[in-house]
Design a protein that fits this description.
heterodimer, A: 296 residues, alpha/beta, D-Maltodextrin-Binding Protein, domain 2, 2 domains, five-stranded mixed sheet, B: 487 residues, alpha+beta, Beta-Lactamase, Heat Shock Protein 90, 12 strands, rod-shaped
């Protein structure tokens, strides 16, 4: 099994590094090497925005456990890559991932549901800078120390990368330095504290954070909105296509707004609900992948 | 030295409390210095430990991120550590990478990532684990990040040390206030204690001073300390002294009285003789008058004889009255007093067939404010002594000279010279021993008169034989005015 999982060895090194860091990541999962069938339903979460909100995690787990009819384990990792690798390897039954990895592993993944925000399954990527900075256009951010969210994030990396590629630029040439914070909230913190002069962040996270932590978000401002793109979806491995639990999961997600516990989850996530979307929703993201691939 | 002399001039009841207070200040200064020194060492070792554990925790948190050059992880670890080490109050932490450049600082706006570490950071540490900067109330510490024996970076930390200095200041103030209050209490206690201790001495001193002014009173029993002891025995000793002195004074007074009576007796017999002498002539004159009273010549002569005889008797009686009537002793010295002396000396001189060399410069109307009674008595005593010392048929002398501010009385004799004790009684500053020898009460009265007038007595040998006793009595200023007025 390990031969099929080249990502796993990398992941383990990262894990040991994480352990050294003294618990930088919140891990609710048991060891990923165990078979999913023996441990109930495993649902992966990427650090979208509230992955550290214990209340949300508890409510979500209760809701899903009830809906699927067996114990649900929520699995969090530090990076998108780890969750994507686990999902593609079949170690997770389903996961809330980003549009970018979904496009990358389209052949191996099925779309389960997509969140709907302001009535649409769409969101934007923002280029942000410190609130007091007079930058008006994204070109003004040249020479910055730039904070990306995650190399596998659409809004936190790919959109900016594609924007630069469209203009014949590369991040290392346009920005003086860049680094990854592995979390959209961290991008906002990095820009707010001055560690980075600009950042690429999920627009949905930024907007919701503006409600939850106005003081922090108030220290940043948007320099550029991207076009509307497919909202990070919930996906499952193609291998589990016939699994009734995936069907129940899909029903549970799309019917979330009809249950009390579900509405509680939606309220905490600040989204309208989940909708069954077509993979074509992510074609714009796929186009960006193409641009990057072509222009470097 | 001047300071020491001045210090000695301060009364003991103030000097001891001041010394106690100074001692307390000195002790408190030493204690404060020790306490503060100990405190600063304790604080520093506490701070070293705290900073050490802070840096240990930070090292564990950032080392993997530093190895990866992960700016965000380093920043995140620093950011969280600032909140979790409240006891140390971290102000700032900077993590540098292998190349010495900043990976992340707690305040990236001040020290941006990827920049060079400011030079000031390298030079702000000394040999100790934590360097304290008093000016900015800040502590500095640094730690190299070592992985597999290689330096991969460093942590530079600054933290707020103001509470440490504040604590020192607070303890210093507490020490100063406490020691100040203690010093004040001890000084006050010392003052009261010393006052209480020397109170009996003060009583003794007051009595001694009064005694020196002539009013020696025993210390009343209510002033005696209730518990006895040294002071009580000192008081008893003083009281015994006062009683002895009083007895001696009474005895002396008694002796003086007796001496007076004795000399009165001598004078009375002289006077009786003086009166008796003319009495025979008077009776003879009366007989002559009875027989030949009709004869005018005889009658006139007899009456004249009787008159002169009676006059002589009256002079003797008047002189005696003037000498021994106490109410007259307070009036000023006048020519009459000297004349009385002369009359009173007459019988003794006649008995011993001696001559009185009288050289008195005293105008009839002149009055000196020197008290007449005691001077007359003194001159009489000296002349009687001179007469007793001079052989029969010899000569004694009285000389009185006046200058504007003093009266000089000198009495000469032809005796064998005055005994040493007598001279001491007249002339010594402390006539006590001579008086206690019990000699010459007449001379003692002379001495007392001279002392009372503020004068001086001298005794010297005569030109060929005998002695000259000279009394110099000052005439006070108002007396001089009176004299000029009288003149």
């Amino acid at each position: 099994m390990n031969e099929h999982c080249p990502a796993k060895s990398r992941m383990l090194t990262r894990r040991s590094a994480l352990a050294l860091c003294g618990g930088a990541a919140v891990s609710l999962a048991l060891s990923p090497s165990r078979a999913p069938a023996q441990e109930g339903f495993k649902f992966g979460l990427t650090p979208v925005f509230l992955s550290s909100d214990l209340e949300l995690l508890a409510v979500l787990r209760t809701y899903l456990t009830e809906a699927i009819g067996e114990p649900v384990e929520l699995v969090s990792r530090r990076t998108y890559q780890e969750i994507t690798a686990l999902l593609v390897a079949g170690q997770l039954h389903a996961a809330w991932i980003c549009g970018y990895p979904f496009v990358q592993f389209k052949a191996e993944l099925d779309l389960v549901a997509t969140p709907s925000w302001h009535g649409k399954p769409l969101y934007q990527s923002y280029l942000i800078a410190a609130a007091g900075r007079p930058a008006e256009r994204w070109e003004d951010l040249r020479g910055d120390i730039h904070a990306f969210s995650d190399p596998d994030s659409n809004s936190g990396y790919l959109v900016t990368r594609a924007l630069l590629a469209e203009n014949g630029l590369k991040p290392e040439g346009f920005f003086a330095r860049s680094f990854y914070t592995y979390g959209h909230r961290n991008v906002i913190r990095a820009v707010a504290s001055g560690l980075a002069q600009s950042g690429s962040v999920d627009g949905y996270v930024w907007e919701v954070m503006r409600e939850l932590e106005p003081e922090l978000v108030g220290q940043t401002r948007i320099v550029r909105h991207s076009e509307w793109l497919g909202f990070p979806p919930v996906a499952s491995p193609k291998a589990l296509a016939g699994d009734p639990r995936i069907v129940r999961l899909k029903d549970a997600l799309t019917g979330m707004d009809r249950h009390d516990q579900g509405r509680k989850v939606l309220a905490l996530l600040r989204i309208d609900g989940f909708v069954a979307a077509e993979p074509a929703l992510f074609d714009t993201i796929a186009a960006k992948v193409d641009v990057v691939r072509r222009f470097g | 030295m001047r300071f020491l002399r001045r210090g000695r001039a301060i009364p003991v009841s103030y000097r001891v409390p001041i010394l106690v207070a100074l001692l307390m200040v000195a002790i408190s200064a030493v204690i404060s210095e020790r306490v503060l020194d100990r405190l600063s060492r304790t604080q520093e070792s506490f701070l070293d430990g705290l900073a050490g554990s802070y840096l240990d925790g930070l090292t564990a948190a950032v080392l993997p991120a530093v190895l990866r050059g992960d700016v965000w992880e380093v920043f995140d670890a620093l950011d969280r550590s600032q909140k979790s080490y409240q006891a140390l109050s971290p102000i700032e932490a900077v993590v540098t990478g292998e190349d010495g450049r900043v990976l992340a600082a707690t305040d990236p706006n001040r020290i941006p990532s990827f920049s060079d570490l400011p030079d000031a950071y390298a030079s702000r540490y000394d040999a100790s684990a934590v360097t304290l900067d008093r000016n900015s109330d800040t502590g500095f510490a640094h730690r190299d990040l070592v992985y597999q024996g290689q330096k991969v970076g460093a942590i530079h930390a600054a933290f707020d040390a103001s509470h440490i200095f504040a604590e020192r200041r607070e303890i210093l103030v507490t020490l100063l206030v406490t020691n100040g209050v203690l010093a004040a209490i001890f000084a006050l206690g010392g003052f009261l204690l010393v006052r209480r201790m020397i109170e009996p001495m003060r009583v003794l001193e007051d009595h001694m001073r009064a005694a020196a002014n002539g009013i020696a009173e025993p210390i009343p029993s209510r002033d005696f300390p209730s518990r006895g002891g040294e002071v009580a025995s000192l008081f008893r000793g003083y009281n015994a002294l006062v009683h002895a002195e009083r007895e001696r004074a009474n005895f002396a007074m008694q002796l003086a009285e007796e001496e007076k009576l004795a000399s009165l007796g001598r004078l009375a017999s002289g006077m009786a003789h003086e009166i008796n002498n003319p009495l025979g002539g008077l009776f003879n004159a009366i007989d002559t008058l009875k027989t030949h009273g009709r004869t005018p010549g005889v009658r006139d002569t007899s009456i004249s004889l009787i008159e002169r005889g009676l006059q002589g008797i009256r002079e003797v009686v008047e002189a005696a009255l003037a000498t021994y009537r106490p109410e007259r002793s307070g009036r000023p010295l006048s020519a009459d007093d000297l004349e009385d002396v002369r009359i009173l000396m007459k019988p003794e001189l006649r008995r011993r067939r001696q001559r009185l060399d009288w050289q008195v410069d005293w105008p009839a109307g002149f009055v000196a404010t020197i008290p007449g009674g005691p001077v007359r008595q003194a001159v009489l005593n000296l002349l009687l002594n001179a007469s007793a010392a001079t052989p029969e048929a010899g000569a004694i002398g009285l000389g009185i000279e006046r200058t504007p501010d003093q009266l000089k009385i000198s009495v000469t004799d032809e005796g064998p010279g005055m005994p040493r004790d007598s001279i001491a009684m007249l002339c010594d500053d402390d006539p006590g021993p001579a008086v206690r020898a019990g000699r010459g009460l007449g001379l003692w009265m002379v001495r007392r008169m001279v002392d009372a007038c503020g004068g001086k007595a001298t005794v010297e040998a005569g030109p060929s034989v005998g002695s000259i006793v000279t009394l110099v009595l000052p005439i006070r200023e108002e007396a001089q005015h009176e004299r000029s007025h009288a003149a």
